[in-house]
């Protein structure tokens, strides 16, 4: 016997493995072939994501966070991007070798993303409800009025006041925080198993940032999503993430449970980021506590890529690439991780 409960979301044919693992990125490399040379944006990134888990990906601008997300979503422009090696498995299936037609059915219904420039990616010429409804018309073949009804339901879910009255309003009639809620509504519309939020609060003021983070955490909990929170701002994710991976020059240089990472970082770069928290929202500024700038990715320094900016750098740091290794409860790619960890 089948039940006749009406649901917007058909059952997914993708199932996580026995450990609840949804996503498995393994030794991913991405490079951009540009007139100035080959920019090595991602240089062997590996991580996984389980259902019901929030992973923060942290690092300064240019460290490769968005490129990692775009590779997972399958929206990199190739060329100029090239993926010379690595795999990205979703529920065991490699997205990088999947036929485009199948991939399209993953993007949106299974893995969804809130883009870094979310506030400007709403179309100014269509009502917001129409744009949310697009997800249902396109992926579920719904008619206009059913899609609008779904849009109202989602707008209510992301706590937009007077959703029914405002479903046909245009983007400019909403505040920045409300527009971000609309983007979140679109991203969760098809009930994805994985949600990637790329700098979801960057353009918002501090109070609204906290509200958006709380909303994402609530939705993640409710839907048992795997959530990847990408940010340069270590100040906004401490309360919502379970684990964090810190990126520098296209590598993960530190990995830890969120509390350990903040309490006792095991990499000098993480320590610098933490000491810089109040200044990190000033885009393009040199980090107070670190100094210097991230490397040009066409000429990444020998040894540890962070060595020119590191107060602890020794000869070995300029010659030998440090592997990501276990140090206490954390992982760190620093030759002197023990010393960093112990203060
Ligand atoms: N379309 C592109 N063409 C050339 N280089 C790119 C392109 N997109 C990204 N990159 C390179 O990849 C690096 C990482 O970018 P990105 O992932 O956006 O950093 P972030 O950590 O700030 O999100 C950039 O510094 C840039 O050098
Ligand atoms: Mg980015």
From TrEMBL:
Tagged with keyword Cell membrane: yes
Domain named ABC transporter: residues: 23-274
Any one GO molecular-function label of the UniProt entry: ATP binding
Organism superkingdom: Bacteria
Any Gene Ontology biological process: peptide transport
Localization, UniProt: Cell membrane
Principal location listed in the UniProt entry: membrane
Record membrane topology: Peripheral membrane protein
Pfam families on file: ABC_tran, oligo_HPY
InterPro entries: AAA+_ATPase, ABC_Ni/Peptide_Import, ABC_transporter-like_ATP-bd, ABC_transporter-like_CS, Oligopep_ABC_C, P-loop_NTPase
ATP-binding in keyword set: yes
GO CC annotation terms, alphabetical: plasma membrane
UniProt KW keywords: ATP-binding, Cell membrane, Membrane, Nucleotide-binding, Transport
CDD domains named in the record: ABC_NikE_OppD_transporters
UniProt family annotation: Belongs to the ABC transporter superfamily.
Protein name, per record: Peptide ABC transporter ATP-binding protein
Lineage start: Bacteria, Bacillati, Actinomycetota, Actinomycetes, Micrococcales
């Amino acid at each position: 016997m089948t039940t006749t409960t009406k649901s917007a979301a058909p059952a997914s044919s993708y199932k996580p493995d026995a450990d609840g693992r949804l996503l498995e990125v393994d030794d991913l490399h991405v490079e951009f072939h540009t007139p100035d040379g080959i920019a090595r944006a991602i240089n062997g990134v590996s991580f996984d994501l389980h259902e019901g888990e929030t992973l923060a990906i942290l690092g300064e601008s240019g460290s490769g966070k968005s490129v990692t997300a775009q590779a997972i979503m399958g929206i990199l422009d190739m060329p100029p991007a090239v993926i010379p090696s690595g795999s990205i498995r979703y529920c065991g299936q490699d997205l990088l070798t999947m036929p485009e037609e199948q991939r399209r059915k993953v993007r949106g219904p299974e893995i969804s993303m809130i883009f870094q420039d979310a506030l400007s990616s709403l179309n100014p010429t269509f009502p917001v409800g129409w744009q949310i409804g697009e997800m249902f018309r396109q992926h579920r073949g719904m008619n206009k009025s059913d899609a609008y009804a779904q849009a109202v339901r989602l707008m209510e879910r992301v706590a937009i006041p007077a959703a029914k009255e405002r479903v046909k309003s245009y983007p400019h009639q909403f505040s920045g925080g409300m527009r971000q809620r609309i983007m979140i509504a679109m991203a969760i519309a098809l009930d994805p198993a994985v949600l990637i939020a790329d700098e979801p609060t960057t353009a918002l003021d501090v109070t609204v940032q906290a509200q958006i983070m709380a909303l994402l955490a609530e939705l993640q909990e409710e839907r048992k999503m795997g959530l990847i929170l990408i940010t340069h701002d270590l100040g906004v994710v401490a309360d919502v993430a379970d684990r964090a991976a810190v990126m520098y020059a296209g590598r993960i240089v530190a990995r830890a449970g969120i509390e350990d990472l903040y309490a006792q970082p095991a990499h000098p770069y993480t320590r610098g980021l933490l000491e810089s928290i109040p200044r990190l929202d000033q885009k393009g500024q040199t980090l107070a506590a670190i100094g210097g700038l991230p490397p040009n990715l066409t000429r990444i320094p020998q040894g540890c890529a962070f060595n020119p900016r590191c107060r602890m750098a020794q000869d070995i740091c300029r010659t030998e690439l440090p592997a990501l290794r276990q140090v206490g409860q954390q992982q760190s790619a620093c030759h002197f991780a023990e010393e960093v960890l112990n203060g």
